[in-house]
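Can't paste images in this forum, so I'm doing it all in text. The chain is below; anyone willing to post the predicted structure tokens underneath?
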Amino acid sequence: MVYTTIMARAKLIFHDKRVDGDEIVEMTIWQVPMPVAASDHRLKYSLFFGRKGERVIGYDNERGKGDHRHYRGREEPYVFVGVDELIADFIADVGKEREDG
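Text version of the structure:
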């Protein structure tokens, strides 16, 4: 219930979605009144890159898990420094995946 209340008072600060063929890149960042459980900042975010119905890369701070990234089925911790760095790291991973993929 507390989480629902927090997200109800969240303020959307960034959203961008791009679809190119079978690829989707979507980035959403909210400012929340208090940190999401296991994070120490007041942002909630979800950055997604996928193709053919699968998530290839994702960055988020799911409640209880804190900041982390998903890459080709693996989940690993992510050190959140700030919004600019978050977006840059995500875009770099997407670029690398496009080169390798």
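The mean pLDDT is 91. Residues 2-100 form one domain.
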